[in-house]
Design goal:
mainly beta; Jelly Rolls; 8-stranded antiparallel sheet
């Protein structure tokens, strides 16, 4: 891995195209070098949106609404910010029946809008670009006006502020009427006619405009200081949104389908809970586990719940890296052991020279501190299912501590971690010429499951602790001077 300014890996706003192809041959897949950005590129100003909603395909969750009055079925605009967690087909919105289906979705990592007539797509508009990065936030706009005489003006697709080139395109006929804005049930996060192709990932600032074909400038702008496409305060700028228009900001955890536009076009919540409200947003991208990071020849782990739950298969050593790496600063996160008897967790990096060599410093389920060169020694009590591992990484001084269930291991204290005393640390003198990422590992003897918490947990937190900036929701106290692993903190402390 090459070092960028500030020594930090992990994109916030990926260049249009969202390319993540990894090293040639796909042996070691991490973020493409085009997507490695320095901390100076990350947005500094707070986003108008403070929350996102996390959709998990395994929960069959969605939002639904049946309009009482038809709106404009020829002209409308969708604007949404999203961080996708899968390359599978997934729907932003769906409307229509078995033989009359409208979808706005990802298909083969391409943004598309289509009509399916029961046997074929008689309308389909796809981006040529693919959007593969599962660590970055994207902004998409789907702008439709079938009254236009020129077919290419009837549907326009935008990504991160830029009009996209298209392929495999069959435009709607002039004055074609969609099922969107009709008086039949409309879904966010799945198909309408069947409970399938659920969205998998995070959505924020979900805006639907009934009766206008708008451009991205209505929803976002280029930050003059950073050159990054960022969100506007659309809640104040776009009223009114038309008969069936709505704006979902996901700020009410008890009602994630609440329309705050003033139209009261609220959505029914299906299988979403308050835990699905997150603070992972466009200007503050939290670390997750990266499904495109894997070692040559390994069985790729199974990811779910916003890529925070990882299932490692038995029979092979499998690795899972976080999406944000550091070379400076002080960082805290937690990892819950949810199943198995052969879990490792800590930090690591991959050698770009061979694409296979894994280097890391880990706590093993046996309680041993372990490095991937094979050295192991006693450090903590053995881990059991349900235990939460606390990880404090002082990247300024190359020191790593572990704790379990609120107690730091090896008689380490909160005070010495905060003061940088290394005598009871798990590892010290770590070579900081490399960029280190969160790393979890499953061993060969059994299936192993973990749930990573970088500040947006997928499980209930009983106490609730944030860092000094108010970022994160952790089970145990964050040491003073340590921070949640997100881009807002990286911009300041990385």
């Amino acid at each position: 891995m090459s070092r960028k300014n500030g020594g930090i890996i992990g994109p916030v706003n990926t260049p249009v195209g969202g390319l993540v192809t990894g090293i040639a041959g796909g042996v070691w897949r991490m973020n493409d070098v085009a997507n490695l950005v320095s901390n100076s590129q990350w947005p500094i100003a707070a986003s108008p949106g403070e929350n996102s909603c996390r959709f998990n395909v395994g929960d069959s969750d969605s939002l639904s609404r049946t309009p009482t009055t038809a709106g404009n079925r020829k002209t409308f605009t969708l604007s949404v910010w999203c961080k996708k967690m899968s390359s599978s087909q997934m729907n932003f919105m769906g409307a229509g029946g078995t033989s009359d289906q409208n979808h706005i979705s990802f298909e083969n990592d391409r943004l598309q809008i289509r009509h399916y007539n029961g046997s074929s797509n008689d309308i389909i508009v796809n981006t040529s670009a693919v959007f593969r990065d599962e660590s970055a936030w994207y902004h998409f706009v789907v702008a439709v006006d079938t009254t236009q005489s020129t077919n290419s003006d009837r549907v326009k697709l935008y990504a991160n502020g830029s009009l996209q080139s298209l392929n495999d395109t069959t435009y709607p006929s002039q004055d074609y009427e969609w099922n969107f804005n009709d008086t039949e049930i409309q879904y966010i996060g799945r198909r309408q006619h069947s409970s399938a192709y659920h969205f998998d990932g995070y959505m924020a600032e979900f805006t639907w405009v009934d009766g206008q074909q708008l451009t991205p400038s209505s929803f976002g702008e280029t930050n003059s200081a950073t050159g990054i496409w960022t969100a506007k305060d659309i809640g104040r700028q776009l009223a009114p949104l038309g008969t069936n228009g709505f704006y979902l900001d996901f700020k009410d955890s008890s009602n994630l389908g609440k329309d705050v536009s003033g139209n009261s076009n609220d959505f029914t919540v299906n299988n979403l809970t308050s835990l699905d409200q997150t603070t992972d947003i466009t200007s503050n991208n939290f670390c997750t586990q990266h499904p495109l990071s894997y070692r040559s020849g390994q069985t790729v782990p199974t990811y779910s719940d916003g890529n925070l739950k990882v299932v490692f298969a038995a029979g092979v050593n499998t690795f899972s890296y976080g999406t944000l790496g550091v070379q400076a600063g002080k960082w805290y996160w937690e990892v819950k052991v949810t199943f198995g008897s052969n879990v490792y967790t800590g930090i690591g990096f991959a050698s770009a020279a061979t694409n296979t060599d894994i280097n890391g410093y880990l706590l093993r389920q046996t309680g041993q501190k372990y490095n991937t060169s094979g050295s192991a020694s006693s450090y903590a009590s053995a881990l059991s299912t349900g235990d939460t591992v606390m990880i404090a990484f002082d990247a300024d001084n190359g020191t790593l501590w572990f704790g379990v269930n609120g107690t730091w291991s090896n008689s380490a204290t909160q005070s010495e971690i905060e003061n940088g005393t290394t005598s009871n640390s798990a590892f010290s003198s770590i070579d900081m010429s490399s960029i280190w990422l969160p790393l979890s590992k499953g061993g060969t003897s059994s299936n192993s499951n973990i749930q990573a918490n970088f500040g947006n947990p997928i499980y209930s937190i009983s106490s609730g602790n944030s860092d000094a900036n108010g970022h994160g929701n952790f089970e145990y106290a964050v040491p003073s001077g340590y921070y949640a692993l997100n881009t807002s903190n990286l911009n300041t402390y990385g």
